[in-house]
Amino acid sequence: MLRAFTVGYVTLSARSLLPVNLTLGVLLGVLLVAAAGVVYWFRLSPDSSADRPREIVIAGVRAAAQLATVSLVITWAVTNLAGLAAFLVVMFGVAVRTAGRRLTSNHTWWLTAAPIAAGVVPTVAALLLTGLVPVKGLVLIPISGILIGGALTVTVLAGRRALDELELRRGEVEAAMALGFLDRDARMEIARPVASDALLPGLDQTRTVGLVTLPGAFVGMLLGGASPMMAGAVQLFVLIALMAVQAIAVAVTVELIARRRLFRPVAQAA
């Protein structure tokens, strides 16, 4: 099934893709400026120290540079086992660093490796052991990228919400401990409900797939010539695997925060 996912992407005809020309470059530039302009005009930044318009522009430029680089190295990565391993390690390392930087500025940032790996590694291992996915870069890279990206997103969302809420409701934690709750349990009662909201985007995407949105795997396979049934099967796998990975990531993130393993410096703002 997942081999067809790869074939679908490989056999995409040039006519079904966006042309890489000056018009595309200009349009991308306009959209990037528009995004930054809206954020600036409506002041969509958490505080005066955060320059979100600048962050958006930098993110767009970085994305272009990174995709150009990936385009150059992807051939080596998908045809060489060492290249495949290196590529996956880099993907995971960047995800851990990104999540850690979003949650804290202290030495505990590296612990975000735990929630990301906890869901992704068993899922990818199960795919390999059952033979559904071959040990080939052309399959492993996109599948692993989707799962790592999903785990990264919910780790950041759950972690930020939990840490913010614990800071805001510190008095309730102390009151619960005065009533006999263990420190971990008192913090968990505050952190868990808000952290669970990180699962909502993935849940909503799964509930509305085919009705509101047609995700990338489905569209990619259709453009590649696969049948709607095959495209739907692959997309269903991606969505359900993502929900499993994200649920595990949120659970591990909340546990680390409740046990004070992953925390912010006292003076660090939310």
From TrEMBL:
The chain crosses the membrane at residues 20-44, 82-100, 109-133, 139-159, 209-230, 236-258. Keywords: Membrane, Transmembrane, Transmembrane helix. The keyword Protein transport does not apply. The keyword Transmembrane helix applies. It comes from the Bacteria. It is found in: Membrane. It is a multi-pass membrane protein. InterPro entries: UPF0014_fam (IPR005226). Belongs to the UPF0014 family. This is ABC transporter permease. It comes from Streptomyces javensis.
